Amino acid sequence: MPDSTPSSNDREPLSPLGYPARLVGPGETLGSVSSKIGDIVLKGQHPRGWWVGFGIAFLLLMVFLFSITYLFYKGTGIWGINMPVAWGFAIINFVWWIGIGHAGPFISALLLLVFQKWRNSINRFTEAMTLFAVSCAGMFPILHLGRPWVAYWIIPYPNTMGLWPQFRSPLVWDVFAVSTYFTVSVLFWYVGLIPDLATLRDRSTARWKQIVFGLGALGWRGSAVHWQRYKMTYLLLAGLAAPLVLSVHSVVSFDFSVALTPGWHSTIFPPFFVAGAIYSGFAMVLNIIIPVRKIYGLQAYITDRTLNNMAVVMLTVGLIVFYGYASEAFFAWFSGDVYERYMMYNRLAGPYAWSYYALMFCNVVVPQALWSRRVRTTPVLLFAVAFFVNIGMWLERFVIVVVSLQREFLPSRWGMYYPTFWDYATFAGTLGLFFTLLFLFIRFLPMISMTEMRELVAEGVSEPVRGPQLPPVFAELAKR
Amino acid sequence: MAARFDSEDALKAAADAAYLAGYRKMDAYSPVPIEGLAEKLGNRRKTIMPLIVLLGGIAGGTGGYFMQWFSMTVDYPYNIGGRPFHSWPMFIPVTFELTVLCAALAGVFGMLFLNGLPRYHHPIFAAPGIERATVDQYFLCIEASDERWNLEGTRRFLEGTHAAEIVEVPR
Question: If I label B138, which of A189, A264, A356, A452 is the partner at 20 to 30 A Cα–Cα?
Fold first, then answer.
């Protein structure tokens, strides 16, 4: 271990480039990993932070139930949507939540395929987050329907009406994309859980816990032949989930880009949306794991290296998102099209200009702080940056949905959009649903994959690993 | 007859020795997947999981495309702005999604089926201390149905390895 930077302290080993290099805390063994993570579930002693968080989330969940009950009773007229802005909060929130879900398969599948071992400690958590975020997202298009009780009409099934869904419509693609995404995420998550549930079954002492975890573990016994098939399946699932990361938000972006509305009809949308999704997903993961690792004392597993790497990914996709903003503006000008140019003018100086500037501040200006190593390795600062990104990504969808629709082609059709109390209540309500599920997950299932942490320990990487190697000349420069 | 080991390397060495000694009906239990262990135990064939996933994907893809072609051109043709009924580029997203969906379902259920899971009980669960096989211990079990198995000989063989403990698995 070369002591490359004078700022390196003795406790945290650094890679040659000066990044935190530890994957697992020192002195962890197979047994200690299993007991420390498993005991959070088995011992059932939960810190006050859990109860406070769960209480708030549960209250918000009740707000959600109340607001959708009223919605089903009165109809979508209780929201602020009208012509020309018929896609209000419901679609903004749908895209926002779907985007947040993208961190899950990105971390658990894509990073698995490229051997990023720091993902092992957070993949379970982010997969769970994906499931809950997609649950929240999936509800919005249905709630947005005038008649939500016939939502199943969009699924192709033999029916007495003799009808088929319109497969040329991106809205139908969306149904397939989101439901496939959810199903594959559930499978991936559950397959990962099987050996962990077996560990919990074998470590629990109460009979009913053994039965419940035993049923979940499906009789897993860790046989060598089983492991062989298991690993192969897990790898294949990762290979299948990786293109899903890219496809789901691409399909969501088709909902917009296939339409002719200025500000939507753009070929940059699929990659721009995918980058934005990963951006907000990582921000949400950071916003959750930073408090959780503090409350439960999991610094030995979710190490500074994990946080630092996540911040680096976030900065990178953030720059791609910025490129998306820049190219939107450039193409609006370069097209020479009066409507496209007006769309950009409207964003910069229209009645909702505040949202565009706030978006730029949250998504472009603030994240530049991540260039600093100190920010990346100081959890509080990282949390703050991630929080701004979450707000910024919500504003981005607000700009895309509302500001584009609000002043389309015909000036006589121009109008404003004013969200009502019920818009806010439904949005806050889904936050409640998301966090309620998340807190229950932390309580009843291992939030870090014990199996994959054991793999890390078994491979002997509890010793600090070396970071990326630079050619000697650059390494010399990096030391300065 | 099962032997408990403290480390991965001891288990691997014992598995090699057991195979050389002519034992075939045996299995190892470990808390972490061990690369190449199944091969050491005599499972020379590669797993057919990739084939199952491939078949699932092909079924999903062709089935999905056929569904769209059939509904949009044969069963319910609908003229939208004069576009062709068989407008294949528009069918690709759903075809892709169904390919992935069916491949993933085939993978997971195929893996569970081949592993014989879910399974209510297995004799190895009666072995004393086996609950640590999912935590931090490694087990090698030579089954009584093996041709070379006999109570004394197999015990002596397992004692010759670096086993931490030898346990008899009740039938």
Answer: A189
Which one of A35, A201, A224 has the shortest CB-CB distance to B41?
A224
Pick the closest to residue A436 from A182, A132, A189 (CA basis): A132
Contact by Cβ (8 Å): B49, B107 = yes
User: Both ends of chain A: CA-CA distance in Å?
Assistant: 17
Asked if B107 and A237 come within 8 Å (Cβ–Cβ), the reply is yes
Q: Tokens 């598995």 appear where?
A: B15
Contacts of A198 in chain B (CB under 8 A): 134
| A-chain residue closest to B68, CA distance | A167
A398 band by pLDDT with thresholds 50, 70 and 90: very high
Q: Give the list of residues 6+ apart from residue B66 with CB closer than 8 angstroms, or none.
A: none
What class has domain A30-475? Answer: mainly alpha
Q: Do B98 and A180 count as a contact with CB atoms less than 8 A apart? A: yes
List B residues 79-138 in contact with A (Cβ-Cβ < 8 A). Answer: 80, 83, 87, 90-91, 93-94, 96-98, 100-101, 103-105, 107-108, 110-112, 114-115, 117-122, 124-125, 130-136
pLDDT value of position A8: 38
Residue A43: pLDDT band by 50, 70, 90 thresholds?
confident
Checking if the pLDDT of A10 tops 50, the result is no
> How far is the C-alpha of B104 from the C-alpha of B100, rounded, in Å?
6
Return the structure tokens found at A423. Answer: 């818009």
Q: What is the C-alpha to C-alpha distance for residues B121 and A217, in angstroms, rounded to an integer?
A: 12
The two most distant CA atoms of chain A are separated, in Å, by 75
* Domain coordinates in residue numbering, chain B: 2-44+125-167, 49-114
**In chain B, which residues have their Cβ closer than 8 Å to the Cβ of A167?**
68, 71-72, 90-91, 94
**A224–B96: do the CB atoms touch at under 8 Å?**
no
How many whole angstroms separate alpha carbon B53 and alpha carbon B80?
Answer: 36
Residues for chain A: how many in total? Answer: 480
Looking at every residue in chain A, the average pLDDT score rounds to 86
Q: Which of the four pLDDT bands, split at 50, 70 and 90, describes residue A472?
A: low
Q: Is the confidence at residue B162, as pLDDT, over 80?
A: no
Tell me, what amino acid is at A14? L
Q: Does A223 touch chain B (CB under 8 A)?
A: yes
pTM of the predicted model as reported, rounded to 2 decimal places: 0.89
Per DSSP, the residues of A57-101 read: HHHHHHHHHHHHHHHHHH-GGGSS--SS--S-HHHHHHHHHHHHH
Q: Taking CB atoms and an 8 Å limit, are B47 and A229 in contact across chains? A: yes
Tokens 């592993």: give the residue.
B115
Q: In what order do the strands lie in the sheet with B138-142?
A: B26-29, B138-142, B2-5, B165-167
